Amino acid sequence: MNSLHRPPNHSQAWVVQTWAAFVLSVGGLSLGIICLPVDAWVKGYMGMGTAFALGSTASLAKTVRDLHEGKQVTARIDEAKVEKLLAEHHPLR
């Protein structure tokens, strides 16, 4: 049977860049909302919308990843079954 496929590890530079981009984007958006010349309730509404958008984006990313990993596991199981059938099959019998 084939060894389990493991996704490649991310480099430390990639992890730092990803977190920096996230912090800068959320910080910039928050600063933009704070500096808007509107009432506090409008700023609160925009901040709440941003928080829900961030939360739903994280949930969606996790769900897509889990579905993809689930398909990989199913494909490996099917592949193992086919390999077992082929190993047991002897055409000259």
Description:
There is one protein chain. This protein is mainly alpha-helical. Helix content is 78%, strand content 0%. The relative contact order is 0.08. It contains two helices and no strands. It is elongated.
What ranges have pLDDT less than 50 throughout 5 or more consecutive residues? none
According to DSSP, the number of beta strands is 0
Overall mean pLDDT stands at 86
Q: Judging from the principal axes of the Cα atoms, what is the shape? A: elongated
Report the total helices.
2
- The total number of structural domains is 1
Helix/strand order: HH
The N- and C-terminal alpha carbons lie at a distance of 24 Å
Estimated radius of gyration: 24 Å
The fraction of residues in strands falls at: under 5%
Report the major sheet: none
Helices and strands: which structural class? mainly alpha
In percent, how helical is the residue content? over 70%
Keywords for this structure?
93 residues; mainly alpha; 0% strand
Kindly summarize this structure in a few lines.
By secondary structure, this protein is mainly α. It contains 2 helices and no strands. The longest helix has 49 residues, at 40-88.
